[in-house]
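Appendix B, example 12.
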Amino acid sequence: MTSFQEQLTTLPSVDGIAAIVLLSAEGEAIHRLENRPGTAGSVRVYHALIKRHGHIDRKAAREGLELFAEHTAAARAEPGSHPNIDRLLAIAEHGAPGLRARVVLEAEG
């Protein structure tokens, strides 16, 4: 199994991205992922999913769970410990609605 750190090296760069705002189907902002230490890996995964799929549906969420690698198992073992993975688990495995997203560039803040 490829590790999360190894997976990150295969994903597009997030240089110049300040955050990703996750939106409900209605366009309401429900969460903001900041591109900073501690969440930069999640930003990179979500950014890759959005670039590939245009939104996060069940298929994209399943791909995201694979990208999170060993952290997905940890999130399953301890729900709430990895909220960015929990969100994908809810969509992929529990029928939660998909998400749209808006990329916030550093100049936009």
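The radius of gyration is 13 Å. The first strand starts at residue 17 and ends at 23.
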